[in-house]
Amino acid sequence: MATQCTGLQSLALEQTTITSATDVISGTFAIPGTNPVQYLTGLPTFCRVTATIAPTTDSSIKIEVWLPESTWGGRFLGLGSGGFGGFFDYGALALRLKAGYAVANTGLGTGVSGCTNNFCGSNGNQGNALAIALGEPANPTTGLYGHPERITDFGHRAIHLMTVQGKAITAAFYQRNADKSYFFGCSTGGQNALMEAQRYPDDYDGIVAGAAPFNRSRSYGSTPYGWQVAHANPGRLMQTGQMSLINKAVLAQCAGRDGGVKTDQFLSDPRDCHFDPKVLQCTGGNLPPACLTAEQVTRMQSYYAGVIDPVNGDVVFPAYSRGTEIEDINALGIMAKQQLPEPLADGPLYWVFGPSFGQPGSAINYTNFDIHRDLKAVDDQLAEPMNANSTDLSAFRAHGGKLIMYHGWADQGVASQVSINYFNALVEHDRHDFEHSRHGAEEVRFDERDRRRSALERTQSYARLYMVPGMHHCTGGPGPNSFVLLPSLVNWVENGTAPDAVTATKYVDDTPPNVQMTRPLCVFPKIARYNGSGSTNDAASFTCVRGEHEFNQKPAPQYGP
Predict the structure, then answer these.
(1) DSSP string, 88-101
(2) pLDDT at 329
(3) pLDDT at 118 over 80
(4) Which helix (H) or strand (E) holds 184?
């Protein structure tokens, strides 16, 4: 018998084919493609819709829309992807469904459906590097080489069309439009988020963007740099235990000097840490792994310096922060990256240069890629469809849009400085915008109260950034890495209450319910500073204050923001 849900199979949407519409009434969902089968449980009854969107003859954008049948709160939520797409984040779909959202997700049009992790699908040679790192079969494809439309889908079009058609499916099911629309994403999903705010400002009322690698052509173009530094000499490869050695030395020198306390196993603001790995260089009869060779010192100094143009010394991409020295290979830090046969996440360089990029001895490959010579070719093909570099969010702000960004200080995947640089660039853009309005035809846009507000306050009226001490890429790490931002965003959009400090929790073994510590996450540029009394494991013992003596490493203007 047809139901309101199954009836959606006949829904006519432009460039879209509804492939299934099914009532899920058991409270349990078997995740496609898992072996042995994994299940999501405790779900409300919902309508699961799958569809394929084809804006071009070479496009195949898979989407899923999950619609709670009796617990909908009137809100639509778009979810970002991860890695190079080609999969659905069923865990995130289930989590947001339980919270009463009509929720949508997409594989970005890069690969196959039914894939449940970042390491599968026809998504470029990251599949090789990550799969080998995790002991999984390598994917030999070169992804989107020769498929510019699919690169555009991956860069921004897939998320936008998921949003448009996801809202249409939602409206058809409930017979009314969603009251408000929100977006949440981290990593690639963070880039998806900023793309939405910049290029499709009317899609969402509120957006959460985590650890966003927004400057993607420069990010991917920088991937061979660290690998080449590490493999320039066999003596530069780190030995087991040396990442822990360096991290302990970093903490011994810097923990407690940046607002936190001396016993912290993470840094609260690594910008104030200027640890030089040379202090660990072997002397006398000491030998690795109890110390570092001169070659290993050189490698770590390069790691902390960032990606530097070897010809003119320009900063191409900011450095990873001190405090990101991770021993665990599964965290995909230095130890994992050095074991790969080629650079991690270099897949998009195959999209530019083709299969020969994986063949040492070819004209341009991962062993001889020259950041000074070859980055322009990457920019020429990938910058327009993939970079979310614009700092003009005036259209998003004009309709009341709100943006929350977050980033872990110990992120070993996307340098934490990039989110600070983007936020600071927003502030600078708003300052210029305000100064222009004071002397130009747009002066009426700002009243006297606006004139008295600083550029930072104007930016914070629609965009806020949280830096998370000790958090790795999007999650995990030695710091307080469990926190909730979406309710704060909803409250900001719907009630006008701007978020302030958010409490983050570190659970024992990162598993609830046993709490190890709590800390406040402060609205940037404030940091949490210990009051001098009270438990150092209690957020109440810390106050958000403006940081001092911070250094922000910015790329050269031609590579910014």
Answers:
(1) --HHHHHHHHHTT-
(2) 85
(3) no
(4) strand 180-186
